[in-house]
Amino acid sequence: MRSVRARAALGATVVVAVALIGAGLAVLLVLRANLTDQAGLQAEVVAREVAGQLALDVPYDRLEMRAEEDNPVQVTDEDGRVVAVSKDLEAISGTGTDQVTLAKSPATGSTTGSDGFDNGGDDDDGRHSAPGRGEVDSGDPDFGNGTATVDGDTADYRFASVRATTSAGVTLTVHAGAPLAAEQEAVGSVRDAMLIGLPVLLLVVAGVTGLVTRRALRPVEGIRREMAAITASEDLSRRVPEPGSRDEIARLARTTNETLTALEASVDRQRRFVADASHELRSPIASLRTQLEVGVAHPELLDVPGAVADTVRLQALAADLLLLARLDAGERSGRTKLDLGALVHEEVSQRIGDRIPVAVSVPESGVFEVAGSRGQLARVIGNLLDNAERHAEHAVTVSVRGERGGVVVAVTDDGAGVPPEERERIFERFVRLDDARTRDEGGAGLGLAIARDVAVRHGGRLTVDGVREGGARFELWLPAAD
Predict the structure, then answer these.
(1) What separation in angstroms does the CA of 335 have from each of 181, 344, 380?
(2) Quick one: 354 and 398 in the same domain?
(3) Which one of 110, 267, 380, 436 has the fewest CB atoms closer than 10 angstroms to its CB?
(4) Given 3-state DSSP classes, what are the helix, strand and coil percentages for the chain, each rounded to the nearest 5?
(5) Is residue 236 in a domain?
């Protein structure tokens, strides 16, 4: 099942089916329990009425047993012998004994007929003894289910058993039943209604879920078609349609368009990078080739220093391009601990042919440890110093200090400075603000771009600001080593 709509419809149907079945079973159980309790209460009322008569010593043949209300009654003594039954009771079960025939009286040997009247057992003078006063058990009666046959009809009953004690101390148990036909009919009707309505309701749920899911996923299909078209045409300027809703699909469309925008910018940046790199490489290669061809034809005219300079420039440009390629590929920086103060001293000491001497300000008592790649961070410091030497008039200063859980390396020059509107643009690749400067003097415009990329990949930042006296200050912030 590959369709999201089908899976959603099936899942919703299964959940609703489980919920309805559980709720239906609960309703049936509660309904059955309530109706059974009502039948038990009715049986208890009948049993207590008969038990009350026995407690008043009413003779067995004069007991009123509600036979006309379809409440079978069975009275047993302490030995489980049947001493009285309701009229037309032919069979019974669930009361402890299934006998409906009256037992013989131990004193007289007489019996009581199935109609509930005593066939003997009168007093010697032919009169019944005066009623006394016994008691009825006030505790909760015993309940049970069983069957009874009354006048040829067999049905299920709920029986209640109540004990009564006569004035003579004889304990009798009255078993009275209430029919469960109403309970069975009600439960059966509800069950049948559920069996008929459940499939219909599940079909409705499946249909509605399918329609709602189809409507909800319609924008997704539009996004998919547009993405397929973009892939086929390779036109990253196209965008997927954004629905007017504010749901997850609308956010997905917006995120997709943001991704396409970032991808388009990345591809454009890559294309410009390739074009600019090709242009920058073409100049020293062409110059070197020209000099070599002249040298082959006229050895005395070969400009060896110029050829060496072009070779050095070509080598530096190739190294810059290789480092940028590694950074773009996500190369992780090392995690070696190093002291930026010592690294600054080392880099400045190696700059012998600088046009302007570099003044270093590093506190001797401070320890400025960071974690990273020694080679890449040295490259950053060197690029910042090269940039300052290129634009300074009389002074270049580099300082190191601790600041907000990190270390700051500041490189300051007294040149013309960087206009505020250009302070972010100078970190782009192949950007040179001084168009009048020659390429040989101005470089390829990769130094600051490399410096910022390295700083960001070390968890830091590189910013530029103006100086009150004139010039520019580049500040490299790196997190201090743990």
Answers:
(1) 85, 18, 16
(2) yes
(3) 436
(4) 50, 20, 30
(5) no
| Pick from 467, 362, 462: nearest CA to 413 | 467
Number of domains in the chain: 3
359 and 323 housed in the same domain: no
Q: Using the 3D structure, point to which of 150, 168, 185 is the last residue of a domain.
A: 185
Closest CA to 474 of 455, 443, 316: 455
Tell me, yes or no, whether 70 and 123 share the same domain: yes
Q: Tell which of 144, 167, 185 closes a domain.
A: 185
User: Do 320 and 353 belong to one domain?
Assistant: no
The two tokens of residue 72 are 């079978």
Domain boundaries, position 287:
248-328
Structural contact between residues 175 and 48, judged by C-beta atoms closer than 8 angstroms: no
Q: Among 103, 55, 82, which residue's Cα sits nearest to residue 175?
A: 82
Q: In terms of domains, do 62 and 144 share one?
A: yes
Q: What is the pTM of this model?
A: 0.50
Structure-token match 């079945």, residue found: 21
Instruction: State how far the Cα of 306 lies from the Cα of 225, in Å rounded to an integer.
Output: 58
How is 377-425 classified by DSSP, letter by letter?
Answer: HHHHHHHHHHHHHHH-SS-EEEEEEEETTEEEEEEEE-SS---GGGTTG
Same domain, yes or no: 418 and 298:
no
pLDDT digits (tens, 9 = 90+) for 142-157: 999 999 998 888 999 9
**What's the sign of the alpha-carbon dihedral 291, 293, 294, 299?**
positive
pLDDT-derived band at 39, boundaries 50, 70, 90: very high
174 confidence band (pLDDT: 50, 70, 90): very high
Same domain, 77 and 123: yes
Looking at residue 307, which CATH number applies to its domain? 1.10.287
The tokens for 22 are 């559980």
DSSP 40-90: HHHHHHHHHHHHHHHHTT--GGG----GGGT--EEEE-TTS-EEEE-TTEE
**Six-digit token string for 20:** 């309805």
Token digits for 153? 């009809």
Residue 240 counted as domain residue: no
The reply to whether 110 and 166 lie within a common domain is yes
Task: Give dist(CA 402, CA 49) in Å, integer.
Answer: 100
Residue 258, classified by CB atoms within 10 Å of its CB into exposed (0-12), middle (13-18) or buried (19+), is exposed
Q: Which residue has the tokens 């899911």?
A: 213
Residue 195 forms part of a structural domain: no
Is the four-CA dihedral 307, 310, 314, 315 of positive or negative sign? positive
**Residue 233 within any structural domain of the chain:** no
Torsions phi, psi of 124, nearest 5? Answer: -60, -30
